Amino acid sequence: MLKIEDLTVEVNGKTLLRDVNLEVKKGYTNVLFGPNGAGKTALMRTIMGFSEYKIVKGHILFNEEDITGLPVDERARRGLGIMMQRPPDMSGIKLKDLVRVASKGKKNPETLAEDLGMEHFLDRDVNVGFSGGEIKRSELLQLAAQDPDLYLLDEPESGVDLVSIEQVGTTIKELLDEGLNCPGERCERGKSALIITHTGRILDYVKADRGYILCNGTVMCSGNPMKMLDEIKKKGYEECIKCRLMM
Amino acid sequence: MQTDDVDLKKRALSAANKKAAFGEDFELENYEEGSKISRPIENLQTLDVDSKKTLLQVGVVPSQEGRSGSFILLDNAVAYSSLKDKNVELTSTHKALEKYEWLKDYSWKLVQVDADKYTAKTYLEDADGYFVRVPAGKKGSMPVQTCLLLGSKKVSQTVHNIIVVEEDASLDIITGCTSKKGVEEGLHLGITEMYVKKGATLNFTMIHNWAEQIGVRPRTVINVEEGGTYISNYICLKPVRSVQAYPTVRLNGKGAVTRLNTIAIAHSGSELDLGSRAIFNAPETRAELVSRTITVGGKMIARGEMIANAKGSKGHLECKGLVIGKGSQLAIPVLEANVDDVELTHEAAVGKIAKDQVEYLMSRGISEEEAVGMIVRGFLDVGIRGIPEELKNEIENTITQTAFGM
Predict the structure, then answer these.
(1) Which pLDDT value is given to residue B406?
(2) Which residue of A198, B101, B230, B359 has the fewest CB atoms within a 10 Å radius of its CB?
């Protein structure tokens, strides 16, 4: 579904990502670990196509199509959707209106909002004065309306209190499982996801298939996400860097 | 002639060539005086399609549905006046001055005849206009609509309006200033003096919709007494040669409140010099001056001034301007405190639409053009929250028709 090949990315002349290779298969949920400043958010925003990230080398393939040069909206229309960590304040634009436009009029903003406990936010300006948890729920509400095939989720659990994390976690699970009759259908009809997580708490709700560790702008290794998380919790990322140096 | 009048005339004559403090200087001789005689309009409903459209675009409804009264000044003549609401009085300024001896204490008392050549000309021509009054304790059930219509080419229209909202009364007015289809050149000089008495409320919405070669020089002063409220929404979204206005609200009574909202678009070839001024002359008065302006190729100047002369005054001034493509934006906020214990703040920002906002919307599958449109609508919407819904729709349409190529 998503394939990243030898991707090198600059912002303002500074290299943030170097020779990144990564894949998310159809129906898979992959996780991106890494210390602060490793380039996780940059990678996710590059996949979505935000223009400040300049691709100097490599390709992004989505459903076997090279989307490296496509603008953000074209990528969204092809089935990519992002949950941002710090979305901009959209003064004057009501959440209700954005949800309606994002769903192309197919879904009812009120019903979607009810599921997320966001009914009272529909008439608010998007992100203006929202708390951490409210931003997450608003992003999920917009994604639910958009209904993408690949979810790019940037730290869904950060800045969220314990009650909200359950709501955020279950909602993400529901979105990823939408339309599935049984787990067996996952590779055929399931939604895919790439999730950035620091704490791994989101993995209490969503089953991850594969993990990647990003350090200093490049992928250090990949493997079983739960094992990786255990290792990181025990030893931190220092071990990854050492391990890579020995290769 | 009374000594008062002689004095005013003398002052006006001395200011006949006095340039205004701001804005392009118009040669008055280049424009013919607008006619003071007009064939009365019998029925707004039977006007031709174009005329009805002209009225509708500035919030003046030909069917008069949802309006308590209507008044149309065509060039310099009263062409139409009707009234349904017994709580409101609506007539021409001339007729009102004949009827009420006391009104001379309200006429040319807030706007100075010798402020500049435009006020002088309006005085010297003995301009007519609308007079609206709500007696003490009465409330206008629906808005009164008035239209100042430029009907002939290359004429100057001079207008003198007086609004009096008596104690504890309230009134909504929608004033549409516009030109007939095909009238692309002219001058509009409009004097408006408004009195908001103790505990009264006046909600004033003004929509400008002119043409490429029209110069517009409104001169407006509002007095607000104790506990009174004056709210103004000013909207100018279509091309015009030059508008220069700087309405001044004097908060003269304890606890008086005002809010002035401005939304405007400067098209290529337009110069909009739009200000709002609040003077806090009494304790615990409040003002909020908000302007949201866009240039798509024209020159936009957003002025704002707050002068605090009394303790406990509190005011906030907000000028936000977008530059889309070409054009220029100048925001000039001025705060002046002449006593202690006042709180005046301002927030000014000019620049282009933030790319991260556009791309955020695009990441939801919205095209760039659509995203810019949404942001622009949202940007302007903040400036006019609280205006009648139907006017909002008209404004939406105008914005949709404006090209905001990035």
Answers:
(1) 47
(2) B101
Closest CA to B295 of B267, B332, B263: B267
Contacts of B365 in chain A (CB under 8 A): 73, 76-77, 102, 104, 146
For the stretch B219-229, pLDDT in tens is: 999 999 999 99
pLDDT at position B38 is: 84
Look up residue A109 and give its two tokens: 């903003």
Q: What is the pTM of this model?
A: 0.87
CB pairs under 8 A between A and B: 75
Give residue-wise pLDDT tens across range B85-97.
999 999 999 999 9
Structure tokens at B88: 């409101």
ipTM score for this prediction: 0.95
Cα separation, B350 vs B336, in Å, equals 22
Could you read off the pLDDT of A115-129 as tens digits, one per residue? 888 899 999 999 999
Out of 3.40.50.300, 2.30.130.10, 1.10.132.30, 3.40.50.2000, the CATH code matching A2-92+149-162+179-246 is 3.40.50.300
Nearest to B362 among A71, A93, A97 (CB): A71
C-beta of residue A236 within 8 angstroms of C-beta of residue A202: no
Domain ranges across chain A: 2-92+149-162+179-246
Q: How close is the nearest chain B Cα to the Cα of A160, in Å?
A: 21
